[in-house]
Amino acid sequence: MPVFLSIDLGAGSGRVIAGVSDLKTLQLEEIHRFDNPGTDLPGGSYWNIVGLFRDIVEGLRRAVEKYGKDIVAIGIDTWGCDFGLLDGHGRLLGMPHQYRDARHEGMPAVMHAKLSEAEIYSLTGITTNFYNSSLHLLAEEQVASPALAAADTLLFIPDLLAFWLCGVQAVERTIASTSQLLDAGTGDWAWGVIETLGLPRRIFGKIVSPGTVLGPIRKEVARQIGMEGIPVVASASHDTASAVAGIPMEGDDALWLSSGTWSIMGLERKDPIRTPQAFAARCCNELGVENSVRFLKNIAGLWLIQECKRQWTLDGESISYGEMAKLAEAAPAFTAFIDPDDPVFAAPGEMPTKIRAWCERTGQAVPKDKGTILRVASESLALKYRVVFENFCALADKRFEQLHAGGGGIQNAFLAQATADALGIDVIAGPIEATSCGNIVVQMIATGHLPDLAAARHLIRESFEFQNYAPKNGDEWQGAYERFKAFIGR
Questions:
Q1: DSSP character at residue 230
Q2: What is Dmax (Cα atoms) for the chain?
Q3: Residue 289 CB: number of other CB atoms within 10 A?
Q4: Which sequence spans correspond to the domains of the chain?
Q5: Cα torsion for 305, 311, 316, 317, to the nearest 10°?
Q6: Rounded-to-integer distance, Cα 291 and Cα 209, Å
Q7: Are 3-239 and 247-430+451-490 in the same CATH fold?
Q8: Which of 130, 242, 250, 333 lies in disulfide reach of 236, CB 3.0 to 4.6 Å?
Q9: Where does the chain cross the membrane (predicted)?
Q10: Pick from 128, 101, 98, 102: nearest CA to 10
């Protein structure tokens, strides 16, 4: 049976996944998993991009060892925004910075002195956030960066890795749409924004659609993995774009949630929404498969819970995610609330202390044990989903009756049920590996094994189990929601 290889990189780890399909069902197998830790150096926070590439090649080697000539294609998806700069010979000009690197500080004021945020939103459909590529490039321009001055090409992380695999430089549209430098309506660069910010026009190169076949792997890569000629596909290269493609929704304006380190809730639409109301709600327009628009809102997500786990591990108290979910479920409900998107929670470190301090500062009961801390974080996250949900219903002038949720976060059954309870609608959870599914089916469409996204989603629907969470305790959650709204934004 044909095999498609998904290289899926997150902000903490990466995997090479094999998708095996007889075109009636799809089976996934993890071939190689590896860490992706960021590194803080005197010059900032960086990704070990060379180490990542070595692990990718090792994963491909293992896949070839197992599947050989059955391998049809390779696709890459990663987190958004981060990029590398290359000179005219294709040489990387320094390691890529992480999107949490402090160089973004002060840049929103510099940007908005040139173009107001409302003007930028009207062109790009993206609000200004600390992780935007625009801010990080502007930071390089402000310090007269030698790398930016010498750069001939900008490639986002999946584009850079694809270039190293096959030797073709191209910018895939879904990943470019995260940058705040792309026109959400035309799908081309927002040249007016780029030029007003003083960024060099020459570095913004050819944009290709998701599903573009770039070319076969380089001979040097082929020698290392033991097979030549495998085509590299510019899949839906932004991991959220792949995740949305991998969630089997039906109908127009489908409501979805990609649940992971970030929770991203959105609508799949034909056109962007760039109204003043959408801007006020801090919603963004990123692009998806088959010329779709992902109208979305980023929410802090499982970052809060992951950081609690990391802190307790550093303190010498090892605890699994399953144990954490049980502790949260056993703790008393609605004792306090936090705003998951408060900037104080954005930086790593001391998350339990930050949660307690937020509750104390806002005059609430301070959670003292692990279970209560986790319950406060989980309930607050579900209630923040409700805020975003209500905004989407108003902006789309439609009441949604169900939420399609995918990604690793749906394994937290307590949070999934809390989401259904908070929103008051059914949550259909699955698949867990939505991102890899989306990456793979876009490859299958590109290589002619599937006709379109509708057929791809049907394949996914037939291949995986889905869990339905019906809302419960509506009156209690409505009361909690009213209390929650009084605290957020403080």
A1: P
A2: 64
A3: 26
A4: 3-239, 247-430+451-490
A5: -20
A6: 8
A7: yes
A8: 242
A9: none
A10: 98
Strands 26-35 and 13-21: antiparallel
Spatial contact of 135 and 249, defined as CB atoms under 8 Å apart: no
Q: Copy the structure tokens of residue 363.
A: 């005059």
Strands 467-469 and 39-41: unpaired
Mean pLDDT of the chain: 96
- 266 forms bridges with which residues in the sheet? 256, 296
DSSP H/E element including 375: helix 370-396
Catalytic residue among 8, 82, 101, 239: 239
User: What φ, ψ does residue 324 adopt, rounded to 5°?
Assistant: -65, -40
Q: Are 78 and 127 in contact (CB under 8 A)?
A: no
Per the annotation, the verdict on 239 as an active-site residue is yes
Strands 426-429 and 402-406, how do they pair?
A: parallel
Q: For residue 254, what are its two tokens?
A: 């489908």
Residue 413 burial (10 A CB sphere; 0-12, 13-18, 19+)? middle
Q: What is the mean pLDDT of residues 396-409?
A: 93
CB neighbours (10 Å) of residue 460?
24
pLDDT confidence bin for 253, thresholds 50/70/90 = low
Q: Tell me how far apart the alpha carbons of residues 205 and 215 are, in angstroms, rounded to a whole number.
A: 17
Task: Quote the DSSP letter at residue 204.
Answer: -
Average pLDDT of the residues in 286-301: 95
DSSP 8-state code for residue 78: B
The pairing of strands 39-41 and 44-46 is antiparallel
| 75 in Cβ contact with 443 (< 8 Å) | yes
Mean pLDDT across 101-124: 97
Residue in the block written with tokens 């409505």: 478
Q: Which CATH architecture has domain 247-430+451-490?
A: 2-Layer Sandwich (3.30)
- E strands, 11-82, are 13-21, 26-35, 39-41, 44-46, 71-77
Report pTM.
0.93
209, 244 Cβ separation under 8 angstroms? no
pLDDT one-digit tens code per residue, 405-446: 999 999 999 999 999 999 999 999 999 999 999 999 999 999
Q: Are 286 and 132 in contact (CB under 8 A)?
A: no
Distance from C-alpha of 70 to C-alpha of 357, rounded to nearest angstrom: 55
- Contact 337/379 with Cβ under 8 angstroms? yes
Classify strands 254-259 and 263-269 as parallel, antiparallel or unpaired: antiparallel
